[in-house]
Design goal:
The chain is α/β, with parallel strands linked by helices. The protein has 2 domains: 187 residues, 3-Layer(aba) Sandwich (Rossmann fold); 160 residues, Rossmann fold (3-Layer(aba) Sandwich). 40% of the residues lie in helices and 24% in strands. The strands form 2 sheets. Strands 7, 8, 9, 10, 11, 12, 13, 14 and 15 form a 9-stranded mixed beta sheet that branches. A hairpin with a 2-residue loop joins strand 14 and strand 15. It is globular, with a radius of gyration of 21 Å. The protein starts with a helix and ends with a helix. The model has no long low-confidence stretch (mean pLDDT 94). The structure holds P-hydroxybenzoic acid. P-hydroxybenzoic acid binds next to helix 6.
């Protein structure tokens, strides 16, 4: 039976009412919902490792409260995300919901966060409008407009005149296509084709020849984390890496988790993003070393750092509220919070609850035999431009 909004709300209210009136006041449960299996399992693996590293480094006690990190696998299915979010708040008294590997999964949890008045920290999904779907959503990942508009500015300044865009056909891809395209065209560039490829079982091959026939200066790509190697494999199979067409995009396609698998065909790709494992700061060097040590040499990607920062945000908020873990107190403490992340300085915009951060322009280069996204330009303190455009 399909439940309408009202009956869903009533069902959650009934669950909350049936739960024991007392929650154990000395513990704070963080319910982390991730795709640990399915096509986005790499996101789950990175996020879990990022959150667990923070816990290991900072201990499980903050402001007198014991932190319990409860990680659940939603397999990438939105109905499962929703059920897990409901169970976490009603049965486990989770004070915070965190994670959400894909936009539809973050959206599925938003009504639960609103109903239960529990902060939903989005550490992965990156469609700009997610934070508008509940006043309890706070984001430590990024937004696609935040990375795509600076990519267009860089292309305009570097002799790129004609571009074909190719994106995965759902929220973040549509955001990337729009914010890259509009910024590029406003600056005098031409978008000659806009290609969208399904999220499920993506096959880029049929589009690649059509794209090459246009002879663009560059192809701008967005695919979600974990899908970059499929795109790059087909790009190389069609010989496009030797065609003189430049590869540009948001950093999702040259994900640090996949670069080693992608191999030398990624060399020279220029992307804009908020995190590279090669970021040159003492905080990041310590983060990468500790992460690799704890995870059999696995290199952290932007998903790992967002989960690490999601935990940092909860700890810092609890310190500020002196251990008050009620939803509104935590949310209030999170708004405007600033700290130094492995990615650089960050803060939570108190109005939009999105993260404000540097966007770096990077190029894939080989150093000591390994591929890295090497940052060469910084655009400081970038707010999500979608929300800025509405104010
Ligand atoms: C999303 O579904 O919002 C998403 C997932 C992976 C990314 C970016 C965005 O790399």
């Amino acid at each position: 039976m399909a439940l309408n909004r009202w009956t869903q709300g009533a069902a959650l209210a009934a669950l909350l009412a049936a739960a024991p009136a007392f929650a154990d006041d000395s513990t704070v449960t963080i319910g982390m919902i991730l795709p640990m299996t399915g096509p986005s399992a790499s996101t789950g693996k990175q996020e879990r490792a990022g959150a667990e590293l923070y816990l290991k480094e900072h201990g499980d006690t903050v402001a007198g409260k014991k932190i319990v990190l409860s990680i659940k696998d939603d397999t990438g299915a939105a109905d499962v995300t929703k059920r897990l979010a409901q169970e976490l708040v009603a049965n486990d008294h989770a004070a915070v919901l965190m994670g959400f590997g894909l936009t539809p999964l973050a959206l599925a949890a938003a009504p639960i966060a609103t109903e239960a008045k529990v902060p939903e920290i989005v550490t992965a999904a990156a469609t700009a409008m997610i934070t508008e779907k509940s006043p309890y959503v706070v984001r430590t990942s990024f937004t696609l407009p935040q990375a795509s508009a600076p990519m267009a500015d860089w292309a305009l300044k570097n002799g790129v005149k004609k571009v074909v865009t190719i994106v995965t056909d759902y929220g973040p891809g549509v955001d990337a296509e729009k914010w890259f395209g509009e910024t590029f065209e406003k600056g005098g560039g031409t978008i000659s084709q806009k290609i969208r490829v399904p999220l499920k079982n993506p096959d880029f091959a049929p589009f690649l020849q059509r794209m090459a026939d246009d002879k663009p200066d560059a192809v701008f790509v967005f695919v979600p984390s974990g899908f970059g190697s499929i795109f790059m494999k087909q790009f190389v199979e069609r010989g496009l890496d030797k065609s003189g067409i430049k590869l540009i995009g948001t950093g999702d396609v040259t994900d640090d988790d996949l670069l080693g698998d992608i191999g030398d065909s990624a060399l020279g790709a220029v992307t804009a993003h908020h995190y590279s494992a090669a970021h040159d700061s003492p905080e990041n060097k310590a983060f990468v070393a500790a992460f690799e040590k704890a995870n059999n040499g696995m290199r952290p990607n932007f998903m790992a750092v967002a989960a690490y920062d999601g935990m940092a945000l909860v700890y810092k908020a609890l310190e500020k509220t002196k251990g008050d873990a009620s939803g509104d107190a935590l949310l209030g403490a999170m708004k405007g919070m600033s700290w130094t992340s492995p990615r650089g300085p960050v803060s939570i915009d108190p109005e939009t609850r999105d993260i404000v951060q540097n966007i770096y322009v990077r190029k894939v280069e080989k150093k000591d035999g390994a591929l890295w996204n090497v940052e060469f330009a910084t655009i400081p303190d970038v707010k999500d431009p979608y929300k800025a455009s509405k104010h």
